[in-house]
Amino acid sequence: MVERQERLPARDEVDEVAPGIGRIQLPIMIPGLGHVNCYVLEDERGVALVDPGMPDPWTHQVLIERLRSIDIAPEHIHTVLVTHSHPDHFGGAGRLRVEHRCEVVAHRRFHTPFDPSPDPFADDLTELTVATDPLEPGGDDDRPRNERLAEVLFGEGPMPEVPPRPTPWGEEGFKPGPGELEAMRAWDDLSKQGLLRLDPTVRVDDLEVLRLGGREWQVVHTPGHTGDHICLLDPADGTFLSGDHVLPTITPHISGMTGDDDPLAEFVAALHRVAALDVVTRVLPAHGLPFDDLAGRVDDIIGHHVERIAQLERLGQELGDATVRDYSRRLFQERSWGPMAESETYAHLLHLQHEGRMAVRTDEDARLRYRPVPA
Ligand SMILES: [Zn+2]
Ligand SMILES: [Zn+2]
């Protein structure tokens, strides 16, 4: 089996991966991933960090130690840029903002999935209005789920229940386990706040230019993995910070939870768009090692999804009429079964539905069932 670079444990060394760009690898506790890359962009004002890792105090300590090892004091951090709203990327930003008053830059639609406050951008964003709706009530407690999560984290006494996230396909969605919740409850308040919400001080849009690390970076909005994902391109030497949009040896997760009509098509369009940036010479991903052939890697990722779509159509012929869970359990190996696999399967089924190749109905248990449309 191929050793996935993204699974390797975090290195202790800080490496220079492009002229003037350092890479710190931070440990993360996410299945299938061993580290997240935090890029350090140095300029005359100090440093900017891209993706400062998880919100817990230990990650922060590692980050500060690594910076000190290359003679950078934390008070020299003037900017933190986050590529998207996943906690291994934005988590550390809140503390850096509070402790060092740095700017926090993110896409204009940035909103964390755990934020107890309503999403102010939901109105102009169809993709966040349905499935990620944090206001979805559950059980006999009709307070928003994220409000209850905040209470669990900050509360005392026995651990109250956090309901699973509702899914559009009618099965139970992601729910933090009791061990995870206990661990997070032991965090300090800044870490808990850092997990729940982050208010960027600078919100950027596609094609905006940011001056960081003595370079002029062009923002490239790349929805799919999340709706608010951005990459950064320095056209002067072709350096490209790809976040989780393009990873070297694993295919980024496509979320079926964005509420968008066809998140897979959106992701594929954003892949074609970055593959067409022919100035790119060096890709710096958020997990794994730098690589050069962006267009080649995009081809592989698109090929993987084309194959998945073909597999689903064959399964449709065999199963006739089946739930998203049924499809996902045939598509994924048993060790991967669960809400993530179902979410990705659902994104592919939505695409087939959007193309008129699959039809959908809701069954008596409020689950969606997909069947092929005869050609
Ligand atoms: Zn991510
Ligand atoms: Zn990631």
CATH superfamily of the largest domain: Ribonuclease Z/Hydroxyacylglutathione hydrolase-like
Tell me what portion of residues adopts beta-strand conformation: 15-25%
Structural class: alpha/beta
Give the C-level CATH assignment of the largest domain: Alpha Beta
Number of helices: 10
Computed over alpha carbons, the radius of gyration is: 21 Å
CATH fold label of the largest domain: Metallo-beta-lactamase, Chain A
Q: What sort of overall outline do the alpha carbons produce when their principal axes are compared?
A: globular
The CATH architecture name of the largest domain reads 4-Layer Sandwich
Q: What is the residue-averaged pLDDT?
A: 90
The helix content is 25-40%
Largest sheet: 7 strands, mixed
Could you tell me which ligands this complex binds, including any ions or cofactors? Answer: zinc ion
Question: What does this protein structure show overall?
Answer:
The chain has helices at residues 57-69, 87-90, 93-100, 145-154, 178-185, 189-196, 263-275, 294-319, 324-331, 339-354; strands at residues 15-18, 21-30, 33-43, 46-50, 77-81, 103-107, 202-204, 209-212, 215-221, 230-234, 239-243, 282-285, 322-323, 358-362, 368-372. It is of the alpha/beta class. Strands 1-2-3-4-5-6-7 form a seven-stranded mixed beta sheet. Helix 7 runs antiparallel to helix 8 (294-319) and helix 9 packs across helix 10. The longest helix is centred in the last third of the chain and has 26 residues, at 294-319. It is globular. The two termini are 38 Å apart. The model is unreliable at 125-139 (pLDDT under 50). It binds zinc ion (2 copies). One zinc ion is lined by residues 84, 86, 225, 244.
